[in-house]
Amino acid sequence: MNFHLLVYGVYLPATVVLTVWVARTLFTNGRTFLVDIFHGNEALADSVNKLLLTGFYLINIGYAMLTLRSTDPIGSYQQSVELLSVKVGTIILILGGMHFFNLYVFYKLRNRAQQYAKAYHS
Known about the structure:
Layout: H1 3-37, H2 42-66, H3 77-121
Helix pairs in contact: 1-2, 1-3, 2-3
Organism: Hymenobacter amundsenii
Transmembrane segments: 6-27, 48-68, 88-107
Protein name: Integral membrane protein
């Protein structure tokens, strides 16, 4: 049996589903922060949010495609599961890292917008 095809057949769909789920969560919940950062300009916030979503998809799905290939010999279901756990675990860590990076960027942008608003209204 070709276990590589099994790994590929599970890895790619799992990675895409995880990426879409995290991206949609960030897209939906990040909008509030972006509207605040852009002082209520919903059109600008929505535009930036869509651009962030597109970039998120490109980076994560692109990385998943790059790491799809495996040259390790896979001779059993156990080795398939072990390889999948490493590959999917890596993607999950990257998605988590990007999530926290996005939160950090939103936090910094929001603080900067609040400081600007205080200075402007003073």
